[in-house]
Design goal:
- The complex is a heterodimer.
- In chain A, the strands form two sheets. A six-stranded mixed beta sheet of chain A has the order 6-7-8-3-9-10, with helices on both faces. Chain A has a four-stranded antiparallel beta sheet with strand order 2-1-4-5, covered by helices on one side.
- Chain A has eleven helices and ten strands.
- Chain A is about 40% helix and about 25% strand.
- By secondary structure, chain B is α/β, with parallel strands linked by helices.
- Chain B contains eleven helices and eleven strands.
- Chain B is globular.
- Chain B starts with 5 loop residues before the first strand and ends in a 5-residue tail after the last strand.
- In chain B, about 40% of the residues are buried.
- The chains are: A alpha/beta, B alpha/beta.
- At the A-B interface, helix 7, helix 8, helix 10 and helix 11 of A face helix 8, helix 9 and helix 11 of B.
Chain lengths: ~260, ~290
């Protein structure tokens, strides 16, 4: 579905150059939950931004099915890939109600007629487990988990095929995190979506992704099916990451490489 | 009892905020104890009252709309109603704190050396030169190889891991009796999170400093703490040793917290009802008889 081939990206500030991505190639198939894992600075967010067309790569190509994606895209292409960001506090416009936040993509992409917008917003809210009365609320009256649900509803509004989720639960409490992750899995099945899931939390990856790529300093350390990567990690970096996960039972400690 | 071996004893502590809409009771008669050198975790979610507890211990809640009742005994002296001048004598010297986000905890417009200087003055009057040497030595001890460069840097020039090392060193430089650690590793990557906990462990062991660790992550609790208090909506719902809490959790909220971390062994995400029970209505469960 999405093919990333030989992407490189450098950032230069004054005399300091950072190789954010170094010859990265990936194949994300339809209906994957594809996890991109790595520490801060490993290049995972840069990669997402290139797939979204926010950054322009120095070299390499991004393909969506049979179409090459450039950073300048028409509405039709933009509609297909949507984005949910890390911090629900800063991703919603504090001066807009939930209704106007979610209806904006409906209007831009002309998903429904103007007289059906309110009905559709209500439906989108129900997908993420929020009642219709939330429509008239402002973000600061919502909890962190509710804000993230609104952000997910907004991403779903344009009826995308691919969702890029950049640390969607890192800012949430643990119990809320499980609920939002479960919601994401349900939605994925319901709308037949493909997920690109960016995170540094390997225990989350273990339980929701079917494929995982481990990135380190802009390079791919390891790539494979989640089960294989966790059961038989080959790279020492992957082992370090898995060992660092805080666990709550002895059985889990025993699995660590 | 005039002399107890308890370093910190919180007795029936109550806190409420008077707001336009009415009075909010944030802490409801909480009790908590720490011995010298002991590592205790206070676990709960956002809004449970764990961070305001640390603020009360440091004397940082003094707004007009705040009502405090009960006692916070630090070395058998009730510090709850201390004046700011009295707090100044113990803050940064006897009690220090590490915050969640190390970059935000440092003042962006001062070099690291100047921020160390301020902390060093809490210990005793010294020249800037002596302060620099003292900070240098402390940073060397936490395996920072070029402390001179770090001290001449501004906070934004440091990586998150390095900044956390600086903040931990700063908090420990005056060998405090009590260290408050408010989600010290949440903003960090897993590997750096591990290093930060190890570092805190090493430094506090050396000086026999007691630690009150505030977190919502039971995995972090298991790695670090000896004793655990679970707080939910301003009520301590369960307390016990680490083994008791992890082997035999009694309160449903503790069980939910333990369940909430996705397992390394796979088998899918933890499941919760959309309508979580109101754990506050469930009676307090305590292991404390066996403590």
């Amino acid at each position: 579905m999405i093919k990333v081939s030989n992407i490189s990206k450098k950032f230069t500030i004054k005399n300091n150059t950072v190789q954010a991505l170094d010859d990265v190639s990936l194949l994300i198939e339809e209906h994957d939950c594809f996890a991109i894992v790595g520490e801060s600075g490993s290049g995972k967010t840069t990669l997402a931004n290139i797939i979204l067309g926010i950054y322009i790569q120095d070299s390499g190509e991004v393909w969506l099915n049979e179409k090459q994606l450039f950073s300048k895209r028409n509405l039709k292409l933009r509609k297909l890939i949507q984005f949910v960001q890390q911090n629900p506090m800063s991703t919603l416009n504090p001066k807009k109600t939930v209704y106007s936040t979610i209806s904006l993509p409906l209007k831009i992409h002309k998903i429904v007629n103007n007289n059906e917008i309110s009905e559709r917003v209500e439906k989108l809210l129900s997908y993420v487990g929020l009642e219709a009365e939330y429509m008239h609320r402002y973000p600061d009256t919502l909890s962190g988990g509710q804000k993230q649900r609104v952000a997910i509803a907004r991403a779903l509004a344009s009826e995308p095929k691919v969702l890029i989720l950049d640390e969607p639960t890192s800012a949430l409490d643990v119990i809320v995190q499980s609920k939002v992750l479960n919601l994401l899995l349900d939605i994925k099945e319901q709308f037949n979506l493909t997920y690109i899931f960016i995170t540094h939390d390997l225990s989350v990856v273990r339980n929701i992704a079917n494929k995982v790529v481990v990135m380190n300093k802009g390079k791919i350390e390891e790539l494979g099916a989640t089960n294989n990567v966790f059961n038989n990690p080959t790279s020492s970096y992957t082992k370090t990451l898995i060992r660092a996960i805080p666990t709550v039972t002895d059985e889990e400690d025993a699995i660590k490489p | 009892m005039s002399m107890s071996n308890k370093l910190l004893k919180i007795e029936n502590l109550e806190l409420s905020f008077k707001m336009y809409e009415g009075v909010f009771n944030v802490l409801k008669k909480i009790n908590l104890e720490l011995s010298k050198g002991e590592k205790v975790a206070l676990v709960g979610e956002s809004g449970s009252g764990k961070s305001v507890t640390t603020k009360l211990i440091l004397g940082l809640l003094n707004q007009k709309n705040v009502t405090k009742k009960g006692k916070i005994l630090f070395n058998d002296r009730n510090i709850l109603h201390f004046s700011q001048n009295e707090f100044k004598k113990i803050r940064g010297k006897n009690i220090s704190i590490i915050f969640q986000d190390p970059i935000a905890a440092l003042n962006p417009v001062f070099k690291i050396k100047d921020q160390f200087y301020e902390v060093n003055l809490n210990n005793k009057k010294m020249s800037k030169k002596d302060s620099f040497i003292r900070a240098c030595n402390a940073l060397k001890k936490v395996s920072i190889t070029d402390p001179e460069r770090i001290l001449e840097s501004y906070p934004f020039q440091l990586s998150g891991g390095l900044a956390q090392r600086v903040v931990i060193t700063m908090a420990m430089i005056n060998k405090p009796e009590l260290l408050l650690a408010d989600e010290p590793s949440t903003a960090l990557d897993v590997t750096i999170q591990n290093q930060a906990l190890d570092l805190m462990n090493d430094l506090t062991k050396e000086t026999n400093t007691a630690v009150l660790l505030i977190t919502h992550n039971m995995g972090v609790v298991r790695k670090f703490a000896e004793k655990v208090y679970v707080i939910y909506r301003g009520v301590i719902v369960e307390e016990g040793t680490k083994t008791q809490i992890f082997k035999n959790p009694g309160h449903p909220y503790t069980k939910a917290l333990l369940k909430s971390i996705p397992k390394l062994s796979g088998k899918g995400l933890p499941q919760f009802d959309e309508d979580a029970p109101d754990y506050a209505l469930i009676e307090k469960y305590t292991h404390s008889q066996q403590l």
